[in-house]
Structures are given as C-alpha cells and as structure tokens.
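G., the chain you wanted modeled:
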Amino acid sequence: MRYSKPDDLVLLEVDDAVATVTLNRPEVRNALSSALRRELYDVMAEVDADDSVSAVVLTGADPAFCAGLDLKELGARGSLDDAASDAGIRGLPWQPLRKPLIGAVNGVAVTGGFELALNCDFLIASERAAFADTHARVGILPGWGLSVLLPQRVGFAMARRMSFTGDFIPARRALECGLVTEVVDHDQLLPAAHKAARSIVSNTTPAVEALLASYRSIEAEAVGKGMELETEASREWTRRGGADGLSRRVEGVIERGRSQIHHG
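Predicted structure as tokens:
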C-alpha cells in the first residue's frame, strides 16, 4: 500500500480497514487534470488489491468534491481527441472495486466529478454539496457512465432534466431525488461516512464482496449494453467535431456555475 504525501494529487489514509481517498487539488476545486486522473486510477487499484481494506471512502479537499475534467487543460489542447489517450477519459475512472465505495460529497460535484460520485456505491452529502451535469454546456458527452447511472439513481425524467438544463441541484434536493442517502452538517461529513464504512467492515467481508458482485451482475443485466452505447455516442460526437472549441466555452460554463452556486 502506498501512503500519500501532503503534496500528492490524491491522498490516501487507511485506518481500521477503511481507506479514505481524497482528491487534492483544492486550488482548482479538484479539477481532473490528466495527472490526477492517472493517480486516482492507480490509487483505487492499490486500495482494491489490499486485503486489509474492507471499505473505501472517496472525498475531495475543501471547498469542492470535484469540478470535473480540467476544462482549461482540455481547452488548451483544443479538442477532446488530443487528450483521449489519457488514463480515465474514456471507459471508467477506475476499475470496479471488490469492496464498497462510499462517496462523501463535501461540495460541488460537476460533470466528470458528478460521474465520479455516481460510480460510488452510495453517497453521503454535506449541506454544502451541489450536483450538476454540464456536459452539454461544455460541448462534450459523458463517458464514465452518467447516462446509465444517473437514471438509476433519480429516474429518467430527473436525469434528463439535469443533463438537458445543466442546472445545479443542492444537497437537500438531491436527498429528495434519491441521489444521496443522507445530508449532514459539513463538519460531520467524514464522521458520517466513516460510521457507515465501519458498519460495512463489521460484517463478514467475503459476504459483502459477494453481495456487491451480485448487485453489479444484476445491474449489468438490467442496463445491457448501456455503457458501451454511451462510450460509442461519446466517440462519435468527438469524431464529428462536436467537442471542438472547448476553450471558447470554458469560461462561460465556469462563470454560470459560480453564479448558480452563490445564488442557489
């Protein structure tokens, strides 16, 4: 197991069979640069391979959970194709874990960051959390399962509303929609997530892992080729040039998001 240093892009702590993974680019709201994506993918693989870990908590360094892909980095490259070879842009942000993954959402979870949250088994939110799918505003399509996973959490109509409008929903609304399982005071977020993780750890670990695998098999049967279809739609959109001109849209999307968070 690799333990983190304070300046690592992804922090890792392990305590009593619970691993806490923290995105650590707070100055840019934990935006997913290519380097952070690669590090997150590797850390998740290491955590999953460690048999001393039975549950995982994913969170972000305040003030945000994750603002999504680093739009300035992508915009500087000119198109999504220029960055498509980076780890985790297409496919999955990490290989599915054998052990339960709890998302502790401490602030905004936007687009790619929202997809990170959706790839967790369940979510606990701070009162400061907010969620938005701004793929259509940026001019890209999801590639980490949002169009499959979001309808499973909130239903088809609400999922489409979030995707088509790009509007933020606050933590309490997310609770009403079934997107999160609990909303707590900000300073109680990690204690609440760790409490849930310890409840998981107190069970028979092989049984929990078998149950998680069963859930995944049933969900895969239900969605069929959904993940493949989403990936193909994203690739086709990029091939047609739909993702070109990212740099022209980046500032407007960022500013609109700030306005909604401050006035929402």
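The two ends are 41 Å apart (CA to CA).

Shout if anything looks off.
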